[in-house]
Specification:
Elements lengths: L1 H5 L1 H20 L14 H36 L6 H12 L5 H13 L4 H5 L5 H38 L11 H18 L17 H43 L6 H18 L8 H33 L1
Helix pairs in contact: 2-3, 2-7, 3-4, 3-7, 3-8, 4-7, 5-7, 7-8, 7-9, 8-9, 8-11, 9-10
């Protein structure tokens, strides 16, 4: 029981994985021989099944981990927020975000409608059980994605509001970093989900239609979950930085013709201070760091797909 309390994410992920594995095995999607009409090979079906088997447990686990992570970040941010009631409201949004699951389910069903149709699967003339299983699997994935997106959007909204209230000093922004770390956590989760997509090319055939919707949604989600919570604080920091620079520029202009050693030292000090202000980041996070997180997770599977395509091309040439 103690292990369960300490590791709820692992337990929930294992349960989700076991249920899906049993379902896909029972329907023959994972171990059977039937191939739906739209699939090119049995290997493609296995790859799609593995992706549908891995994504729901992944999202279940990361949503639980992110909840704890967000609560810890909230406590780190507390000293910078004078209105402690706002902190408690944010805590409520984080802990009770799952209550918005009906909206998430509706969003997931809409997303699923762009990718699969259970009615067409039921009406399939061949490999019906596998076709229905894959359709239900895709619907499950998109419903889970919809729920997680709604939950994380509520968390992003909570941190966005705190960004409007946070007290700061332009040269001591470390205490505000939890807002940026929360956003970065969401970016990593979305990028991690993309790492499952190359399983659809397990047969070394790259099919753009299997990827484009997920990639577009991932880019939109990353932009929303990264920029949305940081924007109010970014604007406040940018305005504060602009005011400080204007003040220093005025003082530099007044001291632009030094006549004594003391005047020269003062002017050099002002110029150094202006450079320091100009170097203050107003996003609280390096854009380069964001891209490293994304690329480190996305490039390996893309490279795997590219290598598979090249290998398949070489085999075709040699076969001739």
């Amino acid at each position: 029981m103690h292990w369960i309390r300490r590791n709820p994410a692992s337990l929930c992920g294992a349960i989700a994985f076991a249920v899906l594995a049993a379902f896909f095995t029972w329907t023959g999607a994972l171990t059977g021989r039937e191939v739906p009409a739209y699939a090119g090979s049995r290997t493609e079906v296995v790859g799609m099944t593995l992706m549908l088997l891995g994504l729901p447990p992944y999202f279940v686990m990361v949503s639980i981990v992110l909840r704890r992570f967000s609560l810890a970040l909230l406590e780190q941010l507390r000293p910078s927020i004078a209105d402690q009631e706002a902190i408690e409201r944010a805590r409520h949004e984080i802990t009770d975000g799952w209550r918005a699951w009906p909206i998430g389910v509706a969003l997931g069903l809409v997303l699923a409608s762009f990718n699969t149709s259970i009615f067409e699967a039921v009406a399939a003339s061949s490999a019906r059980s596998v076709t229905v299983a894959l359709s239900l699997g895709q619907t499950t994935v998109w419903v889970v994605v919809g729920i997680v997106l709604i939950i994380r959007f509520r968390v992003a909204q909570a941190f966005r509001h705190l960004g409007r209230l946070a007290e700061f000093e332009l040269f001591a922004l470390e205490r505000l970093k939890p807002i940026a770390r929360s956003a970065l956590g969401d970016v990593v989760v979305v990028a991690g989900a993309l790492a499952f997509s190359p399983l659809q090319s397990l047969d070394a055939e790259f099919r753009w239609y299997n990827y484009h919707f997920g990639i577009v949604l991932s880019v939109i989600s990353i932009a929303l979950l990264l920029v949305w919570p940081l924007w109010p604080l970014h604007r406040r920091l940018r305005d504060a930085k602009t005011r400080r620079l204007a003040d220093v520029d005025a003082r530099v202009e007044a001291a632009a013709a030094p006549s004594t050693t003391e005047d020269v030292v003062r002017l050099e000090s002002l110029l150094a201070h202006r450079d320091r202000i100009a170097g203050v980041g107003t996003w609280l996070i390096s854009v380069d760091l964001v891209w490293r997180f994304v690329l480190y997770l996305v490039i390996p599977p893309i490279a795997w797909v590219a290598a598979a395509i090249v290998e398949r091309g070489v085999d075709s040439v040699l076969a001739r």
